[in-house]
Write a structure and sequence with these properties.
single chain, 129 residues, mainly alpha, two-stranded antiparallel ribbon, 2 strands, 10% strand
């Protein structure tokens, strides 16, 4: 940012000063404001420097475009292979336990022995009340 913003006023100020034909002087002999500019020379320098700076920026942009593929900000992680993901999902689906059915569950429930002794609902001969 420093190199992009600071030199421009200095460069263009030097161009303006270099095209001055008549400088005003104060009573002490110091140089003051410019009274007459060479407009042809000013135009040539102003547009010439502007064109050169724009061309330099274009060259830098072209170099960056060609070198951009080689720039790595972070380590690149390989993207997962979609075919491997599909095969993995198929393998997970193939590992299937015994199929579930309501009939087999009902049969298992009917075949279980009751926890309490048959009769009046007592344990070891004790009353339930």
């Amino acid at each position: 940012m420093f190199l992009g913003n600071v030199p421009c006023p200095i460069i263009y100020g030097a161009i303006v000063d270099s095209t001055c034909l008549f400088w005003e002087e104060d009573s002490c002999g110091r140089k003051g404001a410019c009274r007459i500019y060479d407009s042809t020379r000013f135009r040539q320098w102003f547009h010439g420097i502007t064109a050169f700076i724009m061309f330099l920026a274009f060259v830098i942009d072209v170099v960056v475009c060609f070198k951009a593929d080689a720039i790595q900000f972070h380590e690149e992680v390989a993207a997962p292979d979609p075919e491997k993901e599909v095969n993995k999902n198929k393998e997970e689906q193939e590992v299937v336990t015994t199929p579930f059915s309501l009939e087999s569950t009902e049969e298992q429930n009917n075949s279980k022995k009751p926890l309490m002794a048959e009769g009046n609902g007592s344990r070891n001969g004790e009353s339930a009340c």
